[in-house]
Amino acid sequence: MGSGTRKMGIEKREKIAGLLLVSPWIVGFLLFGLFPMGVSGYLTFVKWDFLRDPQWVGLSNFQEVFRNPIFYTALKNTLIITFGSSLIYLVFGVIIAAMLAKDYLGSNVFRAIIFLPSLVIGTALAMMMQPVFGNGKYGLLNQVLNLLGLPYQSWLTEPGQAVWVIVAMSFWFLGSGVIIYLAGIKGIDPSYFEAAMIDGANGLQQFYKVTIPLLTPVLLFQSIMGIIGGLQVFDLALTLASEFKTGGMGNENSLATLVFYLYTLAFRDYNMGSAAVVGWVIFIVSLLLSLVIFRLSKKFQLFGEEESK
């Protein structure tokens, strides 16, 4: 009885110690995760402008958002940025990482050169790019087009072009993804590549048959992070739109994104209810896209397992 009681006491103390260790995370999740989600969910059903007391309006906020064409413009731009930037990170990130994976003279220098630009924050990058993509003769890129005999382009004012400027800026942040891919490639057992060489596989075949399948977990992680990052694009759009000095989201909302639209509703129009609806749309879209990636990844993981055997 004595030994059994002591054993139960030890197990109880271990459980208490475990709860104490995870309690900071639990408290943090409740305060900064679950509680804000609950408040945001409540705000979707009320009208509140910071000054007056919230008034219950039911589904009016949802109707207001979903009937506004600006919402669909912001959604379209956000999805273009999300898929465009994710594709850049995946394709170019993996290729550059594979090129930098081999150790040769100066390889560390090239890795640093690729990584350093990603340390620049989005606001600073957008400020640097404003004169590059300026309209008319004032834009550096338009001056290059003029030298080539090509017409000027309205990079930031044309609704069909402005969003692609943000997608192009994704190349600037490529370095952080390259480092993660590089770590994944370095973690692959060299014996796989040696076996592929013995079987007569060239460099391209090794990349497709060995590197890509065994890099599937990293590709999955980067895909989800790219989706989350793309759906949260805000600072680039806000800074580029500030050039117009209208307080809006660019010419004809050419730079509108979901987060930018949320910001405009909340802190320009003081419509917290509609802003909360947009916030939940961002959450649901990111959740659905992540689930799609998880579903698709199962097929690629099976392919990787078969190829690596």
UniProtKB/TrEMBL annotation:
<dbReference type="GO" id="GO:0055085">
    <property type="term" value="P:transmembrane transport"/>
</dbReference>
<comment type="similarity">
    <text>Belongs to the binding-protein-dependent transport system permease family.</text>
</comment>
<dbReference type="InterPro" id="IPR051393">
    <property type="entry name" value="ABC_transporter_permease"/>
</dbReference>
<feature type="transmembrane region" description="Helical">
    <location>
        <begin position="113"/>
        <end position="133"/>
    </location>
</feature>
<dbReference type="GO" id="GO:0005886">
    <property type="term" value="C:plasma membrane"/>
</dbReference>
<dbReference type="InterPro" id="IPR035906">
    <property type="entry name" value="MetI-like_sf"/>
</dbReference>
<keyword id="KW-1133">Transmembrane helix</keyword>
<keyword id="KW-0762">Sugar transport</keyword>
<dbReference type="InterPro" id="IPR000515">
    <property type="entry name" value="MetI-like"/>
</dbReference>
<keyword id="KW-0813">Transport</keyword>
<feature type="domain" description="ABC transmembrane type-1">
    <location>
        <begin position="75"/>
        <end position="293"/>
    </location>
</feature>
<feature type="transmembrane region" description="Helical">
    <location>
        <begin position="16"/>
        <end position="35"/>
    </location>
</feature>
<keyword id="KW-0472">Membrane</keyword>
<keyword id="KW-1003">Cell membrane</keyword>
<feature type="transmembrane region" description="Helical">
    <location>
        <begin position="214"/>
        <end position="234"/>
    </location>
</feature>
<feature type="transmembrane region" description="Helical">
    <location>
        <begin position="162"/>
        <end position="183"/>
    </location>
</feature>
<keyword id="KW-0812">Transmembrane</keyword>
<protein>
    <submittedName>
        <fullName>Multiple sugar transport system permease protein</fullName>
    </submittedName>
</protein>
<feature type="transmembrane region" description="Helical">
    <location>
        <begin position="272"/>
        <end position="294"/>
    </location>
</feature>
<feature type="transmembrane region" description="Helical">
    <location>
        <begin position="79"/>
        <end position="101"/>
    </location>
</feature>
<dbReference type="Pfam" id="PF00528">
    <property type="entry name" value="BPD_transp_1"/>
</dbReference>
